[in-house]
Specification:
Blueprint: H1 13-22, H2 26-35, H3 50-58, E1 68-69, E2 79-89, E3 92-103, E4 106-110, E5 120-121, E6 131-134
Antiparallel strand pairs: 1-6, 2-3, 2-6, 3-4, 4-5
Helix pairs in contact: 1-2, 1-3
Length: about 140
């Protein structure tokens, strides 16, 4: 059964998304992030990709080196961090992090937002990804969905 970590802070989507990939709770991932000097209250967590990359890398998980423009749901890799709800504030780009996962040919998005009625999403037409970061799936550390 697929489960999604729910962010416990308004700006905790990056921490929750990494927790979803690594199979950790929000509290466990927040403690790891805090120890790395990464805080959910830092707006850079949802305006800069280095923070999620650092958290994944510290767990031995590799990611694509660049952000890849979103073309279609069918062309996404098996596992990816997606940037949705893209917007600008004072000329700076911001987004909401979610996790895309393909299991046995079935596509799912794990969205940590606490206001959703279901955090396992398949309403793809409602999401407008700008780009994604591929998460390399050849790691034994991945969460078993």
């Amino acid at each position: 059964m697929i489960k999604s970590v729910i962010q416990e802070e308004t700006t905790g989507c990056g921490i929750a998304s990494v927790a979803n990939i690594l199979g950790k709770t929000y509290a466990e991932m927040k403690a790891i992030a805090d120890a790395m000097g990464i805080s959910a209250s830092d707006k850079a967590l949802w305006s800069d990709t280095q923070y999620v990359r650092r958290m994944l890398s510290s767990a031995g998980v590799n990611t694509s080196s660049n952000e890849i423009p979103f073309e279609s749901w069918d062309t996404l890799p098996e596992l990816a961090l997606l940037a949705i709800k893209h917007h600008q504030e004072e000329g700076k780009n911001f987004w909401h992090w979610v996790v895309f996962k393909r299991i046995d040919g079935q596509d799912f998005v794990l969205d940590s937002a606490s206001y959703l009625s279901s955090n396992i999403r398949q309403d793809f037409e409602a999401m407008q990804p700008e780009w994604f970061i591929e998460v390399k799936t050849n790691c034994a550390i991945m969460a078993p969905y």
